[in-house]
TrEMBL record:
InterPro entries in alphabetical order: NAD(P)-bd_dom_sf, Sc_DH/Rdtase_CS, SDR_fam
Family membership: Belongs to the short-chain dehydrogenases/reductases (SDR) family.
Protein name: SDR family oxidoreductase
Pfam families tied to this protein: adh_short_C2 (PF13561)
Domain of life: Bacteria
Stored Gene3D superfamilies: NAD(P)-binding Rossmann-like Domain
Cross-referenced NCBIfam families: PRK07231.1
């Protein structure tokens, strides 16, 4: 499905890699001006080039989502480039070390919460006023299947992905009558550098069989759902959590 985002501006965090990159490419192919935000400006630029090669329009704003000022500046940059901000995807996230809760290093706990949960709040804190100024818009926050079920040795990741659902639902209620929709997406295991850089091929195979479909997902399968939620086709959808999980949570 191709969406019509002509004349709209979108901000995507963690857009230089994996799921965020796929979302940015689909937004760009659907006519949006896309602000590619990630830690590494060079990696962002290569996504801008991919979008441009496909006839789309994108620009770079390198930022760390755990820096509240940088999240304000990212929104101001999007407004300067596009006139207004209409869509935001709070996607940046990290895995954190794999350690049981009783031994989890507090510094790693804080880092994962700072990026995966606080970073979503810092984004929304500035995106919501911008969307209100634009007369409405849509935000998608990247949760996980681990927003609804536990996973051993991943306490801060699971806590952050659960926590951002509460944040999503609360903001959705607060702004439902002002044209700002806020939803969350919950992917199962998706083939991105987050997985391939950290897990062996044997572990990836073991993860694949945990999905009734017998495989892990692709970034494009998450992008399709995300772009739908950003679009006017989802005009009556807010405050909800949408799985894209190959049946992982069905049993
Ligand atoms: P990815 O390929 O590693 O992409 C994430 C991007 O975010 C990377 O470019 C990363 O930069 C960037 N990033 C990390 N920390 C950041 C920060 N503090 N500020 C800004 N950008 C930062 O991972 P992905 O798999 O696409 O994950 C994207 C989102 O989907 C995450 O929220 C993840 O939790 C969620 N998710 C992933 C899966 C999965 O199986 N892949 C499943 C469910 C949910 P560096 O590479 O430089 O660190």
């Amino acid at each position: 499905m191709r969406f019509d985002f002509e004349g709209k501006t979108a901000l995507v965090t963690g857009a230089a890699s994996g799921i965020g990159r796929a979302i940015a490419l689909e937004l760009g192919a659907s006519g949006a001006l896309v602000v590619i935000s990630d830690l590494d400006a060079e990696a962002c630029r290569s996504v801008v080039e991919e979008i441009a090669a496909n006839g789309g329009n994108a620009c770079v704003f390198a930022a760390d989502v755990s820096d509240e000022d940088a999240m304000r500046e990212a929104v101001e940059f999007a407004q300067r480039k596009g006139g207004d901000l209409h869509m935001a995807v709070n996607n940046a996230g990290i895995g954190g070390p794999s350690v049981p809760t009783g031994e989890y290093p507090a510094a790693d706990w804080r880092r994962v919460i700072d990026i995966n949960l606080n970073g979503v709040f810092y984004g929304m804190r500035w995106q919501i006023p911008a969307l209100l100024r634009a007369g409405g818009g849509s935000i998608v926050n990247m949760s996980s299947i681990l927003g609804s079920v536990g996973f051993a040795k991943a306490a801060p990741y699971v806590a952050a992905k659960h926590g951002l659902l509460g944040l999503t639902r609360t903001a959705a209620m607060e702004y439902a009558q002002q044209g700002v929709r806020v939803n969350a997406v919950g992917p199962a295991f998706i083939n991105t550098p987050l997985l391939s850089a950290n897990l062996s091929p044997e572990t990836l195979e073991a993860l694949a069989v945990m999905h009734p479909m017998g495989r892990i997902g692709t970034p494009e399968e998450v992008s399709g759902l995300t772009c739908f939620l950003l679009s006017n086709r989802a005009s009556f959808i807010t405050g909800s959590y949408h799985l894209v999980d190959g049946g992982y949570t069905a049993p």
